[in-house]
Amino acid sequence: MLPRIDHLEVVAPLYQEFARLLQTKSYQGDISCQYSARLSVATDNSVYQQLPQLVLNPRNKFDVQIITQLANEEKFNNIKFSARGGGTGTNGQSLTPGIVVDLSKYMNRILEINVKENWVRVEAGVVKDQLNDYLRPFGFFFAPDLSTSNRATIGGMINTDASGQGSLYYGKTSDHVLELESILANGDFLHTAPMSMEKAVELSQEDSSLGKILQQVLATCKDNREQILEKFPRLNRFLTGYDLEHVFNDDLTQVDLSRIITGSEGSLAFVCEAKLDLNQILKAKTVINIKYDSFDSALRHSPALVEAKATSVETIDSKVLNLAKQDIVWHSVSDLITDVEGKVMDGINVVEYNGTSVEDLADQVAELTARLDKDIESSIGGIIGYQVTSDLASINKLYAMRKKAVGLLGNTKGSQKPLAFAEDTAVPPENLADYIVEFRALLNSYNLQYGMFGHVDAGVLHVRPALDMCDPEQEVLLREISDKVVALTAKYGGLMWGEHGRGYRSEYGPEFFGEALFLELRKVKSAFDPFNKMNPGKICTPIESTEKLVSVDAIKRGFYDRQIPIEVKDSFKSALDCNGNGLCFNYDANSPMCPSSKVTRDRRQSPKGRAGLMREWLRLLEQKGVDVLKLEQNVNGWSVKQLLEQTLFKMKSRFSSEYKNDFSHEVMEAMSGCLACKACASQCPIKVDVPDFKARFVNLYHTRYFRPLKDHLVANVEVITPLLAKAPKLVNSVLSTKIYDAFSSATIGYVNTPLLSVPTLEETVNNHVSKGLFEAFNLEKLEALTEEEKQQYILIVQDPFTSFYDAKTVESMMLLAHKCGFKPVLLPFKPNGKAQHVKGFLARFAKTAKNTAEFLNKLHNLDLPMIGLDGSLVLCYRDEYKQVLGENRGDFNVMLAHEWLLPKLDIIQEKLQLTSQIEYKLFSHCTEKTALPNSETQWITIFNALGLSLQKESVGCCGMAGTYGHEKVNVEKSKTLFESSWEPKLERLNAQQIVATGFSCRSQTKRFADLKARHPAQVLAELL
Prior knowledge:
The protein is an alpha/beta fold.
């Protein structure tokens, strides 16, 4: 069966022919021409945007060979390629107008490990953290440590010769590459590994691709050795891209072609597999956070810290620290970076020592801290304090904050955003402080804001000036600053590209190398890629080529974004502010960030992908003269006549070929995969809130196209369910039949319909009311309570899931409150509207929110605590209600169970005597734990205070997410998500241990693991 190709007609004829012929080969990967697929790889973490013609996802190196062999046919000489991994490049390294070959989707296997010889062999698409998670049980790790380590691929690291924290000690990626398996533009395999000079000379005489390459590389690197050593700066990071110096060892007895490929940005060959050297994990770390009165003081002190023989020295300025304090990440590190009383902290240096034990590090740490104490006492060097920690968990949290710094800078307010274009300059560490003084003076002369952080031990500092690329004048400014930074780094003996490669900065190459040496680079390029097919314009062009190098003046995202009206951009800020940092590509199944991206490995099914599609959709609407904000207003107030006209239009669009290729369908496909878990709204450093703009898009999409029946069912769940609960046994008897399940699957697209609670919550509560355990709802009685009587009452807010499908949890919460000496009152059921919002019924959601908010505000005025049981719905009151109602939302507050219990611990401890030998494990709802990052710790505090053991389990999404897992089209993805994160953790436990805060999580656990998980409140109630 041939690979499917959609929308082939939209790409250039040459690429159409190439794709059709590729179909007929034994190629097993994906071929995509869809605009959405191409658009999702048209950007990276840079300011640039370049739409490719095709996107290919090969499944193995043989697929890559088939691609290149076909492209080597003469008629395809003008076909261009670019390899792509995690898409985290900051300078457009992987962007191309030709074909993007994405190696990350399928080529992500760890192939072999040799523990005795300390090496591992991997495919190019393996993620850095994925590799280290695999290596950890063996006691090894792959050393280069990037801030993007949870999504950067090994292939990408090789292509940019990546490094990061600790490079002074561990070196760069090239220092750990033992062998490479690459494929040349002509389809030949190229195996590179160190060989003797004699062997290299012998092979260079052969009439083969390897022979021609060796012949040129030997000539270039031997004949120009002195010039190379003179020209390349003496830096720890050395030169990225065509590393002519290190092709030979020091005494010129060994040759390693991998050194040419490593750092070549995919301009020489496709790197498919790599054999990598590994380091032993040093079990102990001690970190010293040194605090300064100014960033300049931190920089000037860094050489002394390097001399103290630290493993690494990282620096962070006050701009980044203050942004971190506003982010979810700060709660995890606030105790590690405390303020110094009476002092302003304007920068920190993070000094790390590694060893086999903390005791082994004690002397080094003591020596440094003694010097720090002396400097603080003498007020020398601007040092105002320090903190020391050897706790590995705390250290990991600290570095997680540091790694998030790039994204945090993108979350600054206003239209000017810190941008990557001159952010990885490198100078000798001893020149760094003076260099930065001039760098800051340069930026200050333009009145620009900026943030700084980096690896001061290597002389590399990340500087991101804030510019607005939607302003053509500031785009010109980007060029001016780039030119001046190039000159400034040269003045201090450094490089413009010290860590992140050249990409669109390749135009500065000739200026740095000089005409003669740059000519040698072009000769090397010619030997590998004579027709300039591999990432053309990056680093250099072949000697015979007349094509130009890419330029910093290339088209940027801002060029397209400025075509969207300002008021629309402001309204859809969450989508437009996405800067492409790609944290949402986190590979870890136990991370809650974007489950749809993890299960599909489709870049469109991610916050970054969806934000990019949304901004392009808005741009295209503007081109067609559609006022999207006015359209939204009209949708919510259409007359009967307008609704009839709209229905007729939808009928026409269903059968008309005119609307078949509407880009809206591709956007809808991407949005439909979103689970609406809202992890992105808090986990993304830019706070890209996909469920928000997804709901708005879906709302508008269905003004043109009919809604599926299942959407109407989900949106009406809060109307239908209370009616079904009037006869739960009868309803359940129907729902549990195979006939109904088949009918529901075929006609509605809805499977595994949950069964109603029997007895119902109403019956259960009425029974307890009759026994005097609970109070019946009586508004007049509640309004008449004295202030003293109010202290005894709590109000239980119902939601459609726990109330009608998990009544036992609500009953347990009320029993728990009763045993603690309180009088629980079950409020009448009022629809929450969350399902309406998820499915884009925004007018109906606004009406539901308004009615329910009015009811809850009336109760709020009674000054009685209100408690809800499901995190997703309680948080809807705080977030979506605020979005849709604004100030009209009112001041009501519905708390979650733990938020009410925690302040009452003293009272509860007096009332409850609980004992249990069970070690409970907490599985938290992803929406709850990402929006309320302290929630897990607070539940643990509550359990511990009552003498119980509770530990949190690190899990991602369970795969249910409201009704997502019940929709037929999502069942397999839902199951895969459950199996990848929850199932392995559950298999080690018995049912009594499992505590889950989310209703959907408990449903999923029952469905796929046949285990009945309990809400924490239910566990406590059952122990009474």
